Here is the input.
Amino acid sequence: MTQPIGAASDAIYGIHADALRVNRDRLSVLAANLANADTPNYKARDIDFRQVLAGVSNGSLTMARSTGSHLSGTGAAAAGVVYRQPLQPSADGNTVDASQEQARFAEAATRYRASLDFANGRIQSLMLAITGGR
Amino acid sequence: MAGFGIFDIAGSAMAAQSVRLNTVASNMANADAVTGDPATTYRALHPVFHASRPDASGNAGVSIAGVVESTAEPQRRYQPGHPAADADGYVYAPNVDVVEQMVDMISASRSYQNSVEVLSTTKDLMLRTLELGK
Here is the structure.
């Protein structure tokens, strides 16, 4: 019985591999918000982490195909991206609140770091099992 | 890999903000450059920010759509003793609002700092990712 490589690494890293991916995408979205903090008419966006992570984990983020001739989607990263509801929109149509974006960016970076530590822990446990503590 | 897109986004934001700082510097430097002809008087420069074309995951950096001259009229001052005064004794000072320029400068430098912060956080996360399992 053969097992695809992706499935094997999923068994090692569990949900943390997907969490890393989603957090990385979220960091990109938030970085774009911060970059466009002074751009007129730019609308701030964010990723609904819980929804996207659930979708990535059970594969429901890929496009539904009703016939075999439809192209399969790649589970685009753009899925689950929502526009932020502005707290105090500015006159130039920009909805980026820099301090809020900074806080979210710090949050996403911390989550990314946490997932990384969990993945590292898995690897170390495996190494311990393989080497027997020598 | 999507993660490297953050470097492009933050880089474009830093480039745009430094153009903004340059225009502020130019405006401040010329704030007192009076002439005897309103047509040749220095006019304040303002960069126009524009969200650049989004990458594959829909995240946009910043580009400069252009640098426009202020349309406000130069200030007319009655200084008949001034060597550059016109036949009626008037000189024309640039329409630069120094307070507005200072505020613009602070805003630009804050945004620049934000981008630097995004860059260094992202770099740190990616280096940690590279060291996964070590």
